Amino acid sequence: MRRPGLFSLGIAILLVACGRGDGDRDSPIEPEPFRIHLFAETIELRPGQSELLRVSILDRDLSLGTLRIEIEGLPEGVSATSEDLTVLHESVLLRLHAEDGAGTVSRPAFVVVRAGEITRRREIVASVRASGRPVQSYGDAGFVTLPWDHIPVAVDPSGRILLLQPSTGGHDLMRLQQEGSVDPSFQGQSFVDLEDLPFVATSETRIFLAYSRQVGDGRRQVVLALGTDGRLEQGWGVQGVLEREPGATLLDLQADGDRLRFLERTKETVNQVQLGPAGRVERIDQVLLDGTIFGRLLDDGFVTQDSTALRRFDREAKPVPTFGEAGAVDIGWAEVSDASSDGAGGFYACGNFLDYPFVGHWTRDGADLLWGHADKGALPVLFDEVGTGLAVLPTSTGTLFLAARTSLASGTRLHGLTAAGGVDLDFADGGPVRTRSDVVPLVFRDRDGNVYLVTWDLYYSREVYIRKLYR
Predict the structure, then answer these.
(1) How confident is the model at residue 196 (pLDDT cuts 50, 70, 90)?
(2) Would you tell me which of 221, 353, 365, 382 could form a disulfide with 374, CB atoms 3.0–4.6 Å apart?
(3) For the chain, what are the domain ranges?
(4) Topology of 35-128 in CATH?
């Protein structure tokens, strides 16, 4: 018997796969009853404003009659009109509106077209940019008002403000909930001999406080570890407390989960200390420095200032050789009061220069981006009055929040700046948030990037105001 050739076998397989006869033929693909065309696929809104979206229907089967067009899945605080499209028209305009209290958000939504049992969808992105506007759900329309002697000291990652309130013989630590009310579940500690405000660092699991208290005949720096309920962590240090050696002065504190890193100075040295989850010293990095007047921890080390220079060190307390000359740059008559990492290896620093506020931005190699020196004409564009203080706070989005109190009428302005020193046009529509404060304002930020501006009125209402603003 002759075997079938490969050609014949291939034909047979093809015929079986394709089928024979009318009953085996594939059903024809039905054409779409219409096509949806959008004139924009991203809609950006500001609170209190509206935008129009034109939707066109192309290649429509007129037998479908009137079509219903609407938008589903919009963010909270955003609404849209619905329209009917008759056979006499090809497009409609849908109006999207963001309420005054809408917050910053961006999410997918869908333009939905219905004709009887037929439904088709096209995805769009609906965004609200509320940066710099009050969070209406916080306190009373974005404000929390407290007696003037209540002092906010930090905000935890979830947006709960920690503050000191006066008590018999001292102060108690209390906490506000995320919406601004007092948290009754928080068991705050009491402090009876505070001379200065404590350093506070928070993480998702712990609250660390460091302050100076009387121990025997002198004062010592003391570090406390609290749980998120405000109680002392009994397994940390000695029942939640760690005492430092006499003569050490704390410069900064930084929490990383259950671990703690802090910076302290003695008469001749600056020490970077790393504590483990149980409060035991894991390592101490020491550098010989005389006359240090300022120090702040950065993501990859720390920065100090003395009478001659601004100095940069790595996580092992070694000078960063690429920063200026052998780890130091001369900043003249400037006095630094705050500094923070910029997320790209550099850092921001702010303070005063001959009674004028200044803010500087230094790169990893020590290059000054110039917009930060008052004597070079950059900063007075923003702060053209003699100032009494600044607070600086960069964010992961690249926006630098800068608050300044000026001497005229106790005016306070919160600016959003870009990393290059320009005005961030997204923050408060490019203009500063203006208020008044009789002392230097405070600025905090939670993990979502929302900003908390703290100001005081000591002469009229004698109150402290905490304003929560969208990122």
Answers:
(1) confident
(2) 353
(3) 35-128, 193-290
(4) Immunoglobulin-like (2.60.40)
